[in-house]
Amino acid sequence: MEYFTYLTNDCNLHCQFCSVLIDCRNNNLPIRPIYALEDYITFIEKTQNAASDNEINIYFFGGEPSLEYDLAFQLTELVTKKFREKYKICFILHTNGLLLGEIPTQLRNKLSLIMLSINYEEIPKYNLAGSYFQTIIDNVINIKLHKNIPIIARLTITEETSLYTEIMQINYFFDLIYWQIENCSSFKNFDAFYKTYTYEISLLYRIWLNCFEAGTLLKFVPFMAVVKFMLLHDRSDNMFSCGYGRGMIYIQTNGDCYACSDNIEDGKHYIGTLETGIKFENYTLDKFRCKECQYRFLCMGRCGRMHIEFNEKHISEYCKLNQFMFDLFISDKERIGKALDNYEHYRKELAAPLLEYTEFTP
Q1: d(C-alpha 323, C-alpha 315), whole Å
Q2: Listed residue (271, 309, 266) closest to 288, CA to CA
């Protein structure tokens, strides 16, 4: 199970596209956790037993969890002491990277993974030295010098950003790169966004495919996922690829639990509390428009929140953006399959557990 634990609802970087940051005053939410940590541990124990799961993944989440390093370390100590004999435990820091350079050594050594959300709006077009870009890249390099913790870059793609530019600018520095199209209630100009996004996807794909045929797998998660599910499919395609409604629990600072971090204010994804326990809705893709979709085995629904909250027209727009990407791979399926057979290491790389920490489909 995955426990996304809000260490704080505060943040040192207020991104315009953020769907996680909450107005605590208007929503009557505490900035920091007010529940007893013993109740947190009891909740995990009961949830693990009910799920018959042998893995515990603790995400330090927010807000910006690096503002609460002391609390994060305290939780690693409590969770490890209670569960190390029975479960495989992973601690994951979900951060904007600005304070990675200040992470205490004792906490850094406990981490299994860092997920770094990059705000491209903060990266200048010129004069990168001394900027937000230099801060996060220097912090990533410094982390790697001390411990080879896998670091996944996460990008939000909006109508104001450039997918191609973002990916090419950071590709060298991260173990994996995942991007997600902004989950918003509507696009300002979908036709213009579609034209830009699909053009840039095409550019990235051609670079990726040339490298793939030459023996190098560029670690672009959405592209890796398409190959994996097109040629090495290893799971049911009746569940949301993002994990919605089955394995992700977002624990707010007041102890309320949700199936998704987006739009917590409306309570649409509420599933229980630390005290009462949780109950997931039985969401499967055959209950949504995905039921008869020819791309279902590649996409697996994309995003649960999208199907719950957005209207049909808007859902179709996300589908159209991703279907363009899928068609690129389908049209080259024979070439990709041949390269997969030519390079034995690809199968191991595509089966890497690290991929499972992303949502696969943008």
Answers
A1: 12
A2: 309
Q: How many distinct structural domains can be found in the chain? A: 1
Distances (CA, A) of 117 to 93, 154, 157, 240, 345: 11, 5, 11, 22, 28
CA–CA separation, 151 and 19 (whole Å): 22
Mind giving me the DSSP string for 187-256? -S-HHHHHHHHHHHHHHHHHHHHHHHHHT----BHHHHHHHHHHHS--S-SSS-TT-TTTTEEEE-TTSE
Q: How far apart (Å, rounded) are the C-alpha atoms in residues 28 and 160?
A: 32
Asked if residue 149 belongs to a domain, the reply is yes
Whole-angstrom Cα distance, residue 80 to residue 282?
A: 31
Of 195, 135, 123, the residue nearest 165 (C-alpha): 123
d(CA 111, CA 114): 7
CATH of the domain at 123: 3.20.20.70
pLDDT at position 18 is: 62
Confidence at residue 25, expressed as pLDDT on a 0 to 100 scale: 65
Q: Give, as one character, the DSSP assignment of residue 43.
A: H
Check the CA dihedral 80-84-87-92 and report its sign.
Answer: positive
- Domain residues for the domain of 251 are 2-357
- Low-confidence stretches of the chain (pLDDT beneath 70): 15-26
In a domain, 58, yes or no: yes
State how far the alpha carbon of 64 is from the alpha carbons of 12, 43, 74, 321, in Å.
Answer: 7, 23, 17, 30
Is 240 inside a domain boundary? yes
The pLDDT tens digits for 230-255 are: 999 888 888 888 888 888 999 999 99
In-domain check, residue 60: yes
Neighbours of 171 (CB within 10 A): 15
